[in-house]
Amino acid sequence: MEIRIAAPGDLPVINEIYNQAVRQRFCTAHLEPVGMMEREKWYADYDQNVYPVFVAVEERVAGWVSLGSYREERQALAHVAEVSYYVDEKERGKGIGSKLMEHVVQVATSYGLKL
Which pTM value belongs to this model? Predict the structure, then answer.
């Protein structure tokens, strides 16, 4: 499995995986599926130099993880990130989520985050 920075072409699958969680009422506060325009805005608003989005790829994107600001207005938390990860329902139970989490822990300091 390859873990790499997400590209704009990955957004349809990222959104599909996220919306699986929405429909299952699983680990997201959204109650309605997220549309592609909203997903594209989400991605465009991300500063990939500080808060990257990564995808786990086998034959296709099987899951993704993103780092995001956590209480951005509180300076003492500037080096803290919120981590969100989602795995395709067909790929769950294979350790993909664990590998995504291991990856972000491994690269966090290179993005200015502290462990």
Answer: 0.88
